[in-house]
Each structure stands twice: as structure tokens, then as C-alpha cells.
């Protein structure tokens, strides 16, 4: 007996060690309300486990880690990607971290190695994505040899590590011919030299000539006279995007400002001039009665259009590469959240779109296979670049005219799995920033054959993660032509199979069952391990799975799965046999009910007999 007890204790110890090993993450964020803009999924009270700088698990089950952050009642979202910035200033970068930025786009005219040598002392806490600026190399009248040299130069720079291209055209310049440059590289455009009314005609010619490339217009606030038209043009295309910075004063009237206020703004306020140039406020404007338009300042109607545009990317303001910081340089991102968050409104569509526009959208401009492919999402295998936000503490300090006051609302900033900001302070021990140049996919894809008796084979993409194959649940439902629904972290196949992200328990009809692997989010899709398919469809389909094939065979219950609902159809299937069966069953049940009412109770009869004696 003693030996048996010792053996049981040893087994229990092994189980505990295994459980601990599975749950021993570098960093765990608990009880968070997680919003993943890449899949448009909100997970309430979920836990995130992070290992080696990547998200390892999303689950509502308890997990443990070396470090833990309690995010109860907090929102966790991906950290922000700054659409464009020029300032190489550590102090600015520290302030931008407080605004939620952990990656930013920059440009350079140098070969990549030369740029790194020149700027190595400017590395701070914000990761950098680099654009190659070919403005000085471009001529409208290239001969063949010059054009070939121009193209070779660009290709060499891209191969060195640049992730895209940058160009500042002149108004009379022809559109550059980039047909021999892969269109996966976006082209950023600075129309600083243009009159507002000439931007769209010039741009439209370029887009029609090279219509598969993504285009990004920086600093559209400079073009305040035509910004409405630029928004309209971008919204009619699939590949034109624009960037802007904070929203504050629409205009100022210098002569009406008190001396103290005017003096405070001297040298700080950037203003638009009618000739398209810009200037800093100086004493020459002191007696001006006409209102001055301020950069970063646009009417509320334009702000409203931007906030619902699918093409509006957030930028930090400071493009002058100065050492001086003004509040507008650092408060683009949380200010945008503030503008769209309404605490008492259950419809969070605008709020979620503002998160998307500061995370997924700038990533997508660089394409699905880029240096940003693992950013801007909260899913298995993604880079752990995260913000933990207290929505009760959002404030929008985006004024161009006030002293430096950082936005509030961010409790923690996590970059590559390391907390780099907490308790109002930047972690001085955090790793410095990196140049994002090499694509590091967390998983590979492969084609898997899927078949059902009586149907021809099809091929679906599966993803290899942790030496297992995962397939999108929606792809399986579409193949079987059954209904598929998502509700937060839960999803339903055929209305009967009910599963949840990060949970191995699931329901199949009225029965409870378990999976070997919990469902995960990959590439924005709820995905399941192919080895779990036989368990998932037990009683409805028999499923045989090997390394590259999935075969479904219908069981008797397969017809009970809800069919996929078409746009103009109702998911109701009525058959004559079913109707007759239902009526017959109802009649039998009614008869049995009446028989049971009229049937004598034996116990009562016995008691009556006993009373006679």
C-alpha cells in the first residue's frame, strides 16, 4: 500500500511539473479586455502569455509567468505605428512612447550602411522602418543608360534593407517610371512643392500608370485648402493613403491675442501661408487682423471624415528635425483614440477603426509580407508589441500652442515582450530600438488536400505552427457549406459545434467534449489544429487526417448542421416526410398524455381497498 501511495504522489508531482512548464511564460498579462484590430475581435477577461518576444497564448484559463501584469478593467491593443517621422531625437521618442508608438517610418537618401553609421547614436526606443528617398537621383528626361542606372540604384538600396520608397516631386516633373521596381514596395510622396489644386491630377496619372503599388501622401495638413478632395480621392481607391497629425486650433487671429499669449506662441506655432509655404509665428504677424490657419489644424467636418476613412494614417508632426519639442509633436495617437471613444456608447465601431488606422493600416501599406508582417495584431506568433490602456484616463493634449503635456491613458507599453514604459516612466534598462529590415515569419503555410466522398478534392491553405498544422475554421465551414459565426472569442460551426479561442473545452450539440489543442488566432482567422478535426465533428462527420490530406465522410447527423445562409435565402429546409413525422409524433404524445391522465393510480386503489377492512 505504501508503495502505491508513493507512486501516486510521484505521478502527481510529474503532472504538476508539466503543468507549470506549460504555463511558465516570460511575461503574462491577466484579466485583460483584448482588442485585436487585425481580426476585429474583442476578447473579454483574457490572459496573454508571452515568450521570446512573441505572443504564445491567448486564453481565459489561468497561466503563470516570470512577470505578471494585472490588466483588470484595462484594454490591451497593439502598439501604434507612426506613419512618418523625421526627428532623430531621443527626447521626442521617449514622449512618443508615452503616446503609444513603438515603431515609426523614416526616410534617407544614403545607402543603408552609410545611414546606419551616421545615425547609430540616435537609436532610441522606437523601432524604425526605412524608406529610400530617390528625389535627388530622379530626372524627367532620363536616357536609357541613366534610367537603367537609376533603377539599379533603387533595387540595390531595397536589397540592403529599405522597406519602401520616398519621393518629393516638383510640379513640372513627370511621374517616375517604376515598372521594373517590385510593386510590393510602397511609394511615399511629399507634395510640399505643389499648389493644392495640382496634387490630385499629378497623382492620378501616377496611380493609373502603376496601379498595383500602394501610395502614401505625407503631411496632408499642409494642403489644408484641398484636404477634403484628397480624402475623397483616397477613399475612391484601394491603394492611396494619407497621413496627418494632431487636430487643435482651426485658426488664430494674432491681433486679438493678449500679449502674454502671443509671446508664448512665438517661434512655436506653425502656420500655413496662402502661397503653400509654412512659417513659424513671429512678430511680423502681431497686428494681423485676418485669421491664420495653423498646421495640424482642420475644421471639425474634415476631422469627422478622417476618423471614418479607411485610408487615414496617423503621423507624428515634427518634420523639421529640430531638437525643440512642442506638444503637437508627441500627441497624435492617444488624441485620436480620445476623439472616437464614447464611454456610454455601446457601438465602438469608430473607436475600433481609430485603433485599426494606427496599427493595421500602416502595416498593410507595406504589404502582407513585409518587415511589419508580425506587428499590429494580437494573435499566436505575433510580435508582443502591446499597449495596456486605462480608458477612464484618456486625455487629448494635441494643442500646437501649449507647453509639453503628454497624453494620458497608457499604463504600460510592451515592445517585443519587454515592458519599456510603466508608472509614467520609461524603463531605462529596456533594449534600445532596432531597424526592421528582415522578414521573420512566425509560421509557414502549405497547401492541404481536403475531400468528401462524392465531391472532387479541393486545396486549402494550412499553417504550420509548433510543428502542427492549423486550418481556419471558416475555411472548413465554407468547404462543408455550413453556417459559420463569430461572437467575440467564440465561434460556431453549423450552429452546433461551439468553440472558444484558447480553450480546449467545447460543446458539440448538447454534449461537452475536449480538444487536444486550443483554437488560436492566426493571420486574423480563428484556427484549429487539424488533429482535432475528428473530435470536433464526431457523430456528424468521420474525419481522417494525415500530414497533407483531410478526408470527410458524412455520418447520420451531418444533415443536422445548419446550412450556410445565402444573401437572399432563409436557412429553413422543409420536407414532406419531416412534416408528416412531426405531426405523427405530436399526435402520439397527446394520446399518451391523455392515457396517463385517465389511467388509475394503483397506490390509491390499494389504499381504498385497505380502508374497507
Report mean pLDDT, rounded to a whole number: 83
Radius of gyration: 31 Å
C-alpha geometry: globular
- Low-pLDDT parts are 1-21, 567-579, 602-613
Question: Roughly what fraction of the amino acids lie in strands?
Answer: 25-35%
Number of strands: 33
Q: For the record, give the distance between the C-alpha atoms at the N and C termini, rounded to a whole number.
A: 62 Å
Account of the 3D structure:
- It is a single chain.
- Strands 1, 2, 3, 4, 5, 18, 19, 20 and 21 form a nine-stranded mixed sheet that branches.
- Helix 9 runs antiparallel to helix 10.
- Strand 7, helix 3 and strand 8 form a beta-alpha-beta unit.
- Mean pLDDT is 83; it is low at 1-21, 567-579 and 602-613.
- By secondary structure, the chain is an alpha/beta fold.
Structural features:
single chain, 613 residues, alpha/beta, nine-stranded mixed β-sheet, eight-stranded parallel β-sheet, 33 strands, 27% strand, disordered C terminus
Question: Layout of SSEs?
Answer:
Blueprint: H1 2-23, E1 24-36, E2 41-51, E3 54-59, E4 64-70, E5 75-78, E6 80-82, H2 90-98, E7 101-108, H3 112-119, E8 127-133, H4 144-160, E9 164-167, E10 187-189, H5 196-209, E11 215-217, H6 227-235, E12 240-244, E13 251-252, H7 259-265, E14 270-272, E15 278-280, E16 292-293, H8 300-308, E17 312-314, H9 333-340, H10 349-357, H11 360-365, E18 386-389, E19 410-415, E20 418-422, E21 425-426, E22 444-452, E23 458-465, E24 468-472, H12 473-480, E25 484-487, E26 490-493, E27 497-500, E28 503-508, E29 511-514, E30 520-522, E31 525-529, H13 533-536, E32 541-545, E33 549-554, H14 576-598, H15 602-612
Amino acid at each position: 500500500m505504501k508503495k502505491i501511495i508513493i507512486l501516486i504522489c510521484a505521478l502527481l508531482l510529474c503532472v504538476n511539473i508539466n503543468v507549470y512548464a506549460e504555463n511558465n511564460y516570460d511575461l503574462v498579462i491577466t484579466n485583460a479586455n483584448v482588442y485585436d484590430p487585425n481580426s476585429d475581435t474583442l476578447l473579454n477577461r483574457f490572459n496573454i502569455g508571452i515568450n521570446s518576444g512573441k505572443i504564445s497564448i491567448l486564453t481565459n484559463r489561468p497561466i503563470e509567468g516570470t512577470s505578471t501584469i494585472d490588466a483588470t478593467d484595462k484594454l490591451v491593443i497593439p502598439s501604434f505605428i507612426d506613419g512618418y517621422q523625421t526627428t532623430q531625437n531621443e527626447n521626442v521618442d521617449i514622449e512618443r512612447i508615452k503616446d503609444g508608438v513603438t515603431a515609426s517610418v523614416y526616410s534617407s537618401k544614403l545607402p543603408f550602411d552609410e545611414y546606419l553609421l551616421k545615425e547609430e547614436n540616435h537609436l532610441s526606443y522606437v523601432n524604425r522602418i526605412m524608406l529610400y528617398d530617390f528625389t535627388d537621383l530622379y530626372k524627367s528626361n532620363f536616357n536609357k543608360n541613366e534610367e537603367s542606372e537609376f533603377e539599379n540604384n533603387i533595387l540595390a538600396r531595397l536589397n540592403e534593407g529599405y522597406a519602401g520608397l520616398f519621393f518629393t516631386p516638383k510640379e513640372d516633373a513627370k511621374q517616375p517610371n517604376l515598372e521594373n521596381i517590385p510593386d510590393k514596395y510602397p511609394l511615399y510622396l511629399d507634395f510640399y512643392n505643389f499648389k493644392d489644386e495640382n496634387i490630385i491630377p499629378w497623382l492620378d496619372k501616377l496611380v493609373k500608370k502603376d496601379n498595383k503599388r500602394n501610395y502614401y501622401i505625407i503631411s496632408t495638413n499642409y494642403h489644408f485648402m484641398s484636404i477634403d478632395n484628397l480624402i475623397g480621392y483616397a477613399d475612391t481607391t484601394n491603394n492611396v493613403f494619407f497621413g496627418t497629425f494632431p487636430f487643435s486650433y482651426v485658426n488664430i487671429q494674432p491681433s486679438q491675442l493678449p500679449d502674454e499669449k502671443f509671446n508664448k506662441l512665438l517661434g512655436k506655432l506653425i502656420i500655413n501661408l496662402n502661397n503653400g509655404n509654412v512659417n513659424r509665428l513671429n512678430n511680423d504677424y502681431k497686428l494681423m487682423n485676418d485669421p491664420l490657419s495653423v498646421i495640424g489644424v482642420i475644421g471639425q467636418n474634415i476631422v469627422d471624415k478622417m476618423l471614418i476613412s479607411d485610408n487615414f494614417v496617423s503621423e507624428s508632426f515634427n518634420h523639421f528635425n529640430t531638437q525643440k519639442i512642442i506638444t503637437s509633436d508627441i500627441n497624435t495617437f492617444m488624441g485620436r483614440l480620445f476623439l472616437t471613444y464614447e464611454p456610454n456608447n455601446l457601438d465602438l465601431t469608430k473607436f475600433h477603426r481609430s485603433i485599426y488606422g494606427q496599427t493595421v493600416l500602416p502595416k498593410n501599406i507595406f504589404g502582407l509580407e513585409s518587415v511589419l508582417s508580425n506587428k499590429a495584431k494580437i494573435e499566436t506568433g505575433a510580435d508582443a508589441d502591446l499597449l495596456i490602456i486605462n480608458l477612464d484616463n484618456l486625455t487629448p493634449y494635441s494643442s500646437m500652442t501649449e507647453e509639453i503635456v503628454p497624453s494620458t491613458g497608457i499604463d504600460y507599453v510592451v515592445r517585443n515582450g519587454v515592458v519599456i514604459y510603466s508608472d509614467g516612466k520609461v524603463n531605462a534598462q529596456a533594449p534600445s530600438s532596432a531597424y526592421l529590415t528582415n522578414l521573420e515569419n512566425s509560421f509557414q503555410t502549405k497547401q492541404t488536400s481536403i475531400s468528401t466522398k462524392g465531391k472532387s478534392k479541393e486545396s486549402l491553405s494550412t499553417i504550420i505552427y509548433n510543428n502542427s498544422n492549423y486550418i481556419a475554421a471558416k475555411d472548413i465551414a465554407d468547404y462543408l457549406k455550413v453556417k459559420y459565426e463569430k461572437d467575440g472569442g467564440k465561434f460556431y460551426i453549423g450552429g452546433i459545434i461551439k468553440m472558444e479561442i484558447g480553450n480546449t473545452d467545447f460543446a458539440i450539440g448538447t454534449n461537452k467534449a475536449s480538444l487536444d489543442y486550443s483554437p488560436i488566432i492566426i493571420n486574423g482567422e480563428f484556427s484549429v489544429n487539424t488533429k482535432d478535426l475528428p473530435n470536433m465533428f464526431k457523430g456528424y462527420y468521420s474525419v481522417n487526417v494525415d500530414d497533407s490530406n483531410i478526408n470527410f465522410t458524412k455520418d447520420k447527423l451531418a444533415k443536422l448542421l445548419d446550412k450556410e445562409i445565402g444573401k437572399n435565402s432563409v436557412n429553413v429546409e422543409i420536407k414532406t416526410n419531416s412534416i408528416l413525422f412531426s405531426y405523427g409524433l405530436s399526435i402520439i404524445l397527446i394520446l399518451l398524455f391523455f392515457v396517463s391522465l385517465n389511467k388509475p393510480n394503483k397506490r390509491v386503489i390499494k389504499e381504498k381497498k385497505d380502508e374497507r377492512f
